[in-house]
Amino acid sequence: MLPYGRQSIDASDVAAVVAALGSDWLTTGPRVRQFEADIEAVAGAPAVTVTNGTTALHAAYAAAGVGSGDEVITTPMTFVATASTAAMLGARVVFADVEDETANLDPAAVEALVTGSTRAVTAVDYAGHPAEYDALRKVTEPAGAVLIGDAAHAIGSTVDGRPVGTLADLTTFSFFPTKNLTTAEGGAVASTRPDLLERARTFRSVGMVKDPARLRRPDEGGWFYEVHEFGLNYRLPDVLCALGSSQLLRLADFKARRQHLTARYDELLADVPGLRLPVQRAGVDPMRHLYPVRVLDGRRREVYERMHAAGIGVQVNYIPVYWHPVFEDLGYRRGMCPVAETFYAEELSLPIFHDLTDADQDRVVETLRGILGS
């Protein structure tokens, strides 16, 4: 089965992991700090590593001070963790609709939902195309809300030359194997605001504070630490950070290959009836994590099943978050975000990853053409 996404591991990645295994530090060592510095060089903002993209979101919400009685506005067109991690901190999640062109959070829809209880607004860079952060900031700043970017799909993307880590107050990344680079499991939180980044760093380390300037009792001894707020152990080990640093050395090549495959899809599928292709807005230089097409005329399920039968592992990204029973049981109902629901009914992600060959891509295109032409 040809997958819709997969990792690319080469000999340099293996060597980096082996070297870490032979070192004195398997976790909380120098490779963690190195990987964080390497992320900053790409994301444009200082970063804290965590165990995965979900814990990155949890840490970001904790850093933003999200808690009981707060509201978090976000998109339904995302993986459930974008919303569930806010709910787990006691917040009420409010879903705003998406833009038809990009499936990204619609700033006008967000503006209509902001209240005095809005603590954060979280956008998702769907498929690697950054959201409209400048427009969203015009909504969040007057409301005193924190702007969060879920850039799980988008490390390596830019807007008008600005890397994604600089567009929001807090930005989260995922390094799952299907993403733009991998640490097997892993994630990060980046921020241009030192106060928020320090809160995220403390939260991912069980809330431990060791800085003498922050201790209430600084004279206890070199071993001493305090916990001022509860946190969790979300630390990414040196072994996986070594893999991440190695992968980042190949990020430009990863991006070039994904852009090549995107351009070929754009050209080869341009005249296929019953198919709508993704768009790229002016000023956006995306690193495509997904290539999401829209299958029209109610044929998405048929196409999905026939592509799988042909050995091509297309995917659907995503089920509207509030359709999940955990949100239905909280009173959320279908129909809340009609643009997102229409997008979901038509969306199909075609295979795109670094090691996908042109011949593999030709097979995808020919199979899809054959199905839609029948």
UniProtKB/TrEMBL annotation:
| Molecular functions (GO terms) | pyridoxal phosphate binding; transaminase activity
Q: Which Pfam families match?
A: DegT_DnrJ_EryC1 (PF01041)
GO terms for biological process, alphabetical: polysaccharide biosynthetic process
Query: Keyword set for this entry?
Result: Pyridoxal phosphate
Query: Could you list the residue ranges that cross the membrane?
Result: none
* Cofactor(s) this protein cannot do without: pyridoxal 5'-phosphate
Q: Which residues carry this modification: N6-(pyridoxal phosphate)lysine?
A: K179
Active site at which residues? K179
Q: Which domain of life is it from?
A: Bacteria
> Of which family is this protein a member?
Belongs to the DegT/DnrJ/EryC1 family.
**Could you tell me what this protein is called?**
dTDP-4-amino-4,6-dideoxygalactose transaminase
Q: Which organism is it from?
A: Actinoplanes philippinensis
